[in-house]
Amino acid sequence: MEKYLDFISLIKEFIQLFDALISVEQQKLDAAVSNQVSFVEECMKKEQAFVLRLRGLEKRRESLQENMDMKDFTFSRILEKAPPEAKEQLSPLFQQLSQRVRDFQNVNESAKDAIQLNLYKLQSAIQTSSQKNNFYSASGEKVSEETHFTNRFA
């Protein structure tokens, strides 16, 4: 049962990590919708840190499963092999973790869509602007389209 207690603790850590990831992903979605580019970037930096933590937890999970003689087992297969007292604790945790992963995927997909929409709008604006030949000086004043490469005084 000792090995299962470590595994149970690890699944709880996964759930906490995904809770935090969902929060950051929701912030990223909100920032993307309100065109706060710098805040989107901050969220992406936080996500990178979470990805590193996720990799570490995944390595621990693999190691624990190997110690439990359940290498490459799915969660449902682990439940089949687990003793009843471990099964009681693991079953709801697996369900919670599965729900958190689905929630994260949904928010992540929404954020991705919002960012892609913003990029499309930006590309359209750039294309429209370049088709109208709107030129501006360094100070931001509109410059006429006519340019002369010769000097009339010459």
What would you say this structure looks like, in words?
The mean pLDDT is 87. It is rod-shaped, with a radius of gyration of 26 Å. The protein has a two-stranded antiparallel ribbon. Helix 1 packs antiparallel against helix 2 and helix 1 runs parallel beside helix 4. With 154 residues, the protein is mainly alpha-helical. The longest helix has 48 residues. It contains four helices and two strands. A hairpin with a 5-residue loop joins strand 1 and strand 2.
Give descriptors for this structure.
154 residues, mainly alpha, two-stranded antiparallel ribbon, 4 helices, 2 strands, 77% helix
Helices, strands, pairings?
Elements: H1 2-33, H2 37-67, H3 75-81, H4 84-131, E1 135-136, E2 142-143
Antiparallel strand pairs: 1-2
Helix pairs in contact: 1-2, 1-4
- Report helical residue fraction: over 70%
Low-confidence segments, ≥5 residues, pLDDT <50? none
* Beta-strand residue fraction: under 5%
Characterize the largest beta sheet: strand count, sense, and whether it forms a barrel: 2 strands, antiparallel
Query: What is the overall silhouette?
Result: rod-shaped
**Number of helix segments?**
4
Structural class: mainly alpha
What distance separates the N and C termini? 95 Å
Beta strands, count: 2
How are the strands ordered across the major sheet? 1-2
What is the average per-residue confidence, as pLDDT, rounded to a whole number? 87
In sequence order, what are the helices and strands, one letter per element? HHHHEE
The gyration radius over C-alpha positions equals 26 Å
